[in-house]
Each structure stands twice: as structure tokens, then as C-alpha cells.
Amino acid sequence: MPQEKGLYLGYMKLRSSVDTIRIQVQAKAPNVLPCIKIRDNSNVSQDEWDWLYKLNTCKVTKPVTKLQEEFQLQLADAARLLAKRIGVTEEETLKHRLCDLEVIDLNDEVSFIIMVPPVSDVCTGPGNLDTFMKGNEYVSLPVQVFEMVHTTTYHNDFIRCYSRLSSILEMENLLAQQSVREAFKAEELNEAKQRQQQIADFQQTLESAWKGTRWIMDVIQYARDKQLKGGVPLSVLFAPPPSPVESQTTDSKGKGSLDKNDSKFGSRKISRANIGILRVYPAYDTGLAPGTSVKLQVTTRTSSREIINLVIEQLNKAIQVRGLEAHIYPDEEWQNFGLVAAISGKEHWLPDDFNPLVLQNPWTKGKLYIKHKDKNKMKIKSNSMV
After folding, report:
1. 236/58 Cα distance (integer angstroms)
2. What is the spatial distance between Cα 265 and Cα 366, in angstroms, rounded to a whole number?
3. Which among 10, 157, 195, 249 is most buried, taking Cβ atoms within 10 Å?
4. Cα separation of 302 and 299, whole Å?
5. CA 350 → CA 100, 125, 224, 289, distances in Å?
6. What is the dihedral of CA 381, 382, 384, 386, to 10 degrees?
């Protein structure tokens, strides 16, 4: 049965054997990728898609609209729920991506946005194990089998016509080949070859029509491309629009200045009671402008460790985009950093499992910093204090 009307977030995971590539699906619904519903409206507006597409290129410069903000919240919530359902840890979730090739329209009422693992984890080879989608709830099907089952469900009339025409053309092609072999005169041979070429053209046209419905192959190629490394990382999605990395404005004396409300890292309510904005500053050399900060949209369940990973991820990306020579910290080094709350000249290291959004006064009058743990004896310069 097709999915109910709506926009869905689907998850693509591949497993390979010696002679085939298989795709993970739900045992009870093998005609579609494992998914979770984002909303009832299956359409994605141009504003929503443009905003998502530009997130990973740091080209979002306009203020976020209410429509885009709601879209971001819906996508982020769906991504967290889907990751939890398929057994992906919170830390691994940040490395996953949203395929920004296109919105997949399965039919007039059902659309999909596809979530994929990091390039190295898209396809698990023989003998390699992972914790994704284990148990009797999931099965793996050869990609070709999945395509046929999926197309039969969502494009039944098309697949019936395609199968019939494909069989007819294949038979006609065999007959044309036989005519070429039996031709005696030059005229007969030319006529048979023309017929054979005409059938080949028909087959090519039919194959092009079939290829247009094979969106899964486009997604697989895109997700596995090690050179392109395409997709919007969930670490970027979880950061608030319009820009994950922001710099302070400077006054005539060259000192950083902030809007009064933005200098507080307490919860600044937006559209939900348990969601707020945190502004986090790096206390290590990034090569970026002085006063650079990362503004994150988080919930009361977001841990210090998640915030640390998100901030370093965004700063790394900003360094790369701007071609700076500062050190890019790989994810295996992120554990060496901690989250520090600075207030009245004192530093307070927050545990990795702490939820900073629950901080109350007087903590909301300070600042949050990402700092290297090996340098925990170094004081943050007094001129960076509130």
C-alpha cells in the first residue's frame, strides 16, 4: 500500500555482497525506504527548498522567514526521530546528510526528502558490521528488486506499459537480427538493418523513460560520490538559519560589540516552549574575525557534547569556505574540547551530558565558550567577558 498523503523523511542505507548491492527496507513495507512523516502537506515551496539548498554553502544571508523556520524545525525533529528509530546514535546523527538533489515525488500526494549516512558508511561491505537497522524489523533487497516493487506500488500503470513494451521490443529485435542474418540481396540487408536500428531507437527511448523514474539510482550515486561529498549535514540543519557562523560588529575603537539581548546565552524563546537560542564563542584560534560566534537553535534536551560537536563542525566549515590556514579539527579530536560558562571572571566547565538550555540566572548573564581541555588552566581574556 502507498504511504498516506504527506511529506516524508526517508533513510537510504546500502549493503553489498560479492555480486549485488542491496538496500535496507522495512519488512512490513518493502516498497518504500524506512521513513517518518514530516507533515501532511507534501509540497515543498521554492523558498523552503532554496533555503535548505543554500545552508551547506553558507550562502544564506537573508533573515529567515516564518515558513523557513517552521520547515527547519519540522525537518530537524523528523531527522532526530528517524535516527533514533533506526538505531543511529546522537553523535553519529550529526554526520548524516540530507540529499539536496531534489524532492522525490512518489506520486501526486506523497513526497520524500532523503537522509543518507556519511560517504564512508553509505554502503557496508561484506564482513563489515554496523548497528544501523538491525533486527527482524528490517530486511535488505537487491536494488533492482526494490525499484520494481516500489514502481509497481506508486506507478503501476507505467510499469505495466513499460514491461509490455520492453518485451515486445526485445522480441522484435531478435526477429530483426534474424532477418539480417537471412538477408540475401543488398536491398534486403539494408531494409533489415534499418528495421534493427529503428527498434534500437525505440528501446533507447523506452529506457530513457524508465530511467526518469529511477530516482534511487541518482540518490545512490550522489550519496557515494567521494569527490562531491554532497548533501546538507544534519549538524548544519540543527544550527539555526540564516547563517550558522556569525561575527560581531565592531565599533570605531575596534572592540567587539553585541546587541544587548544577544549577549545572553539563556533561552530566547522562538516558536516552542522547549526551544531556544544559544550563542557560543570559540576560545581557540580559528583564523576568523575576532568575536566570531556560532548561534545554535537547541532544545532543553540538547547536551553540552552535542553543542560542542555542532560548533566545531560549523567553525571547520567556515574556515574551509573562506580558505583560512587555521587548523581543521577532525571529529576524533572533538572529545578534547569542553563547554565553558564564563560569568563574572570565573569559568565553569559543563559536563558533556549537561543540558545548557536549562541554565537559570545568574548564568544567563554570561557567555558560553568552546575550549580545549588541555588548556583548562588558561583564563579567558578579561576583555572577552560580559
Report:
1. 10
2. 7
3. 10
4. 5
5. 35, 39, 38, 26
6. 150
DSSP class of residue 266? S
Judge residue 247's burial from the number of C-beta atoms within 10 Å of its C-beta, 0-12 exposed, 13-18 middle, 19 or more buried: middle
274 Cβ contact partners less than 8 Å away, ≥ 6 residues apart: 299, 300, 301, 357
- Helices 143-154, 215-224: axis angle to 10 degrees equals 140
Residue with cell 570565573: 346
CA distance 251 to 186: 88
Query: Can you give 339-381 as a three-state secondary structure string?
Result: EEEEECCEEEEECCCCCHHHCCCCHHHCEEEEEEHHHCCCCCC
**Could you identify the residue written with the cell 524508465?**
210
Distance in angstroms (rounded) separating the CA atoms of residues 43 and 14: 27
Cell numbers at 286, concatenated: 580559528
Q: Please give the radius of gyration of the chain, using alpha carbons only, rounded to the nearest integer.
A: 27
- C-alpha distances in Å from residue 313, one per residue of 25, 282, 384: 30, 12, 23
d(CA 237, CA 187): 66
Q: How crowded is residue 214: how many other Cβ atoms within 10 Å of its Cβ?
A: 15
pLDDT tens digits, one per residue of 227-243: 776 788 888 787 654 34
Taken as a whole, the chain contains a residue count of 386
pTM greater than 0.85 (yes/no): no
Task: Dump pLDDT digits (tens) for 93-126.
Answer: 888 999 888 888 888 889 999 999 988 888 888 7
| Pair 146, 12: CB distance under 8 Å | no
Dihedral angle of Cα 319, 323, 328, 330, to the nearest 10 degrees = 90
Q: Which three cell numbers stand for residue 7?
A: 511529506
